[in-house]
Amino acid sequence: MSIARPAPKPSTLAGPVALRDGVVCLRDRAAFGPLADEPSDRLVRLALALPEVRSVAINRATGTATIRHKPAAGFHARLASAIRGEGVVLPLPPGPALAPEGETDYIARRLGDAATTWDLVHVAEGRVRLRHERLTRDLEFAEELTRRLRELPGVTRVGANAITGSVLIEYRPRLVTLTGLANAAERCLRPEPAAPQLLKPPKPVRLGPANATLGIAMLGELALPALLPVSAMLLIGTNIKIFRAAAAQIRAGQFGLPVLYAVIVGTTLASGQFFASALMSWSLRYWERRLRGDLAEHRHQLLHREQAGFARRFDPTTDREVLIEASLLQVGDRLNVGPAEIIPADGRVDAGEAIVDERSVRGLEGVTRKRAGDRVLDGSTVLTGTLTVEVSRLGDRTHDSGVRRAMLAATTPDRGSTAPTRDAEAFATRAVVPTLATAGFGLLAGDLGVAGAILRPDYATGPGMAVPLETLRDVALCARRGIIVRQPDALARLAEVDLILVDDHPMLARPELEVARITTKMPEDILLPLAAAALRHLDDERAHALMAACRARTLSVFKLNPTHFDRGVTITYGDHQIRVDDQDPAGGPMGPIAVEVDGTLVGLLEFRRSARPEAAEAIRRMQALAPVPMAFLSSRPQDEAVALAAALGIPIAHGDTTPEAAATLIRDAKARGRRIAFVGDCRRSTLAADAAHVAIALLDDRDEDLDAGRAGIFIQGGRPGPLADLWKIAGAHRDRVREAHRLILVPNLFCIAGAFFFGFTSLASVLVSNLGTYGLYRRATDSLRDLDEPATRRALGQFALAPAGDRVPGLS
Fold it and tell me: What is the dihedral of CA 284, 290, 295, 296, to 10 degrees?
């Protein structure tokens, strides 16, 4: 619907006006001529805002505007006032310029409450056919129009016909209005606005110079010796920076990769093995190119989210739904979001109840039930139910945008000066002195060819390829468990810690939920697994309590998929329908749940808070995975801190500890060579987070701003359980990086042995070393492919049903 806005800049028409029945013709080349796009567009919108106006036609060649209208008393006076901008007008919703670029004649019509250049052919309940000349001459536009209109909420079918130049749209009037369809069809006439690019295309690595150098060197050694001096000059010219860096290192008493590369260049000039040198340089450029391309591709897959293109917003003046582009939303807007729709912004539920899939955004274990007052996030999908949402954050300020920015930073490795990454450069630097010493021995024991074959192996490129891809894989694993890594080396540093300091946090002190009482008409050993099987699809504390009760009784939980989420969760097993729902919806996360079988109430489960903190199990698993000393810091009195630490399973506690005292404690331990992981509220204890070797922030559901604080890792979701998963992933990451370092040594040591015993040349060493790099590259890319699995965002209809014919004991 239209909304009241201040009148636009008045239009002044100096030409003649012709009036006849139902037609007003205005002639003014200054207003409607070829150079007057903006004034003519403004007049179209002002005129069509009058309910009597049917269409406005512009002929730019003659500078005329023809307004067709329904006869009405006083119309001409109101039209004149609108054109002059007098009084208050009701401009139509903003849209594209109504004059398609390059056309001199066009006609705009009123369709519902929208201004459009489409012609209305037919309209009925839930069905409309529109016509536009562009459809007859642009087949690609017909395909694009069909795709974009199908994305609209409430549109059930779209069929474009290029022969008749029309498009048939079938829709649900309850979800989308004729005005919304007209606005959407009009926007399709212009290019789809480009979405903000979080990932920039990688800077291209040009292989042209390397190809030319390789070709000249090959021709010089095999056919045209006269080209060898050219190869020598190219070798020197392309390594000037290496010579300068090597000289600086030697003056500083250091021996890094620049020194090694400078020695390799000198050996090449002395031995004349330019082809091997050119092949080595080409391979370095090639692998750098592959790394950039693969990182860009896999990061795009990791960070890509399906976004809502349109939103159903409530008009503030009429409280009716208006279909608008999601990019036009503003803070405070109220939206209606229904089944299979993506929530387009962060907000709060104003009314309604629905099952929402937030797994791809928050890394939760299941879907969540949202009610009035709950928080919802951009990028989540409503599976069933309908929500009215008040927008609180948009665009780059949403939680999902913060998650993607953090993951982008974590998967962007620091480049080394002479290697693909800084970590690879540091690893390869440790091999420089042994390589130079071995090459010197080879020169004495053999000749310059032996020394050159020993110098050629590449220790930097293999780890430089493998480690960033392994990091990308592990960052993705963390995200699936609600762990957001923000720094590229955070996982590596976490695996190095030798002391864990856990800061007091409300999440740690929260008591664990447990099953308090079971009232049932059937055996408990059947009721518990059935209830757990239904609730395991929800991210609900009671689901965890039911799973724990089943484990305590050594009961296996039935792996059944839900068939409905209306009125609780319904699962199918054989011929039975089992529904688990809140007995008291106002009871919140501790409320009792009822279990029905085929519509008959068979059991009631009640819950309570136990004396054991919920975080105790996560800390136990942490200590089992990483047997590192752990201490608890708290501002509570010493006796309370000791009691809470004992309940958590932490042997050491420091009470009456301020954030400043915690920072001092960490700095003192750091001075003694300790590497400390700080776990807690990193915004309240910024000094402690800065001083720690790695900081892990615990975030609750009400406070998940990932751009604030100094932490390298965030635990979101309001639960400490992912802490143990984080330690497991960090340990596996460390092991895989170490294995990559060991694996690259195998072909390189083989090259050294081959130089001494099998007559390896520099060319053979380059080939064998590249085979080792390829092996590491394949290993890393295979692990990324193994990570791929079906998308976590699923529609309700995609849940598989349990196999028919099975029976639950005790239900027949």
Answer: 120
| φ/ψ bin of 87: left (φ > 0), alpha (ψ from -120 to 50), beta (otherwise) | left
End-to-end alpha-carbon separation of the chain, Å?
Answer: 57
Specify the pLDDT at position 389: 95
Q: 514 has which bridge partners?
A: 608
- The kind and range of the H/E element at 580 are strand 576-582
Between CA 267 and CA 508 the distance in angstroms is 62
**DSSP-derived pairing of the beta strands 119-124 and 127-131:** antiparallel
Query: d(Cα 421, Cα 426) in Å, to the nearest integer?
Result: 9
Task: List CB contacts of 600: < 8 A, sequence separation 6 or more.
Answer: none
Cβ of 583: how many Cβ atoms within 10 Å? Answer: 15
Instruction: Indicate the DSSP class of residue 415.
Output: P
Q: pLDDT digit string (tens) for 488-520?
A: 999 999 999 999 999 999 889 889 999 999 999
Look at residue 86 in the predicted model and tell me its pLDDT.
Answer: 60
Cβ within 8 Å of residue 673, ≥6 positions away: none
Amino acid of residue 410: A
Residues of the chain with pLDDT under 50: 1-13, 87-97, 101-102, 789-812
For 376, list phi and psi in degrees, rounded to 5.
-125, 155
Per-residue pLDDT tens over the stretch 286-308:
999 999 989 988 888 888 877 78
pLDDT at residue 21 in the model: 82
Euclidean distance between CA atoms 344 and 391, whole angstroms: 9
Provide the residue type at 141 as one letter.
Answer: F
SS3 (DSSP) at 321: strand
Measured distance CA(220)–CA(190) in Å, rounded: 57
- The whole-number pLDDT of residue 805 equals 35
Ranges assigned E (strand) in 28-63: 53-59
Q: What is the pLDDT of residue 89?
A: 45
- Would you state the structure tokens that stand for residue 207, as one six-digit string? 């292989």
d(CA 543, CA 605) in angstroms, rounded, equals 11
Task: Give the containing element (helix H, strand E) for 356.
Answer: strand 346-357
* Residue type, position 454, single letter: I
